[in-house]
Amino acid sequence: MIRSTPDNLELLYEDNHIIAVNKRAGDIVQGDQTGDTPLSEVVKAFLKHKYQKPGNVFTGVVHRIDRPVSGAVLFAKTSKALSRLNALFQKKEVRKTYLACVAPAPKDLDCRLEHYLRKDASKNKSTVVRAGRPGAKKAELEYRVLAHGQRYTLLEISPLTGRHHQIRCQLSAIGCPIKGDLKYGAARSNLDGGIHLHAHGLNFRHPVSGLQVVIKAPLPEHDPLWQFFAKAVS
Tell me, what CATH number does 58's domain have? Predict the structure, then answer.
């Protein structure tokens, strides 16, 4: 069951070892040079308050999604869960699905994209380069078209690798930038500074029980475009 906490933290899943929340566009997952309060600290404060813990609360960052992206983020509540989840991600045993609103529509209804990306840390941006170039890393994803709107097309995306800004860069490379993503070719920004990329699902084996866990993050409810496409999302 999805619950909203007093701190407007949308809780997607929680047990003794893990917790998943629905991140808002604009929130950062882990602390950075901006000094803004990261989601990891918000979750930690929530757990400390909920369970009335007098000491430190363990909240391990398992993975991150970009600041302008919304959707499911998973945290570990125990060191055992953190180490095992890290192993699952490293072995690519966590299935991640994203939703994106792009324009124009891609030529193919479903496709596997393969590029080589190089990260420019100074610009916090990745670019497509030829294979063999220094710093080039192979990036792969699969997408399928779910629905068309008047101006935008909804894609479901399954990244097969975990490169920096992979989805944003690869969709831009085929001429289909994500709505609001000025850094990767969108015509204009979104009013809230976010982009229309949403981490919709996580599917993995529980790090302790071994049972299959499926987490789904609802689309942002106050965004008209996301809600227009909501009926096309399973």
Answer: 3.30.2350.10
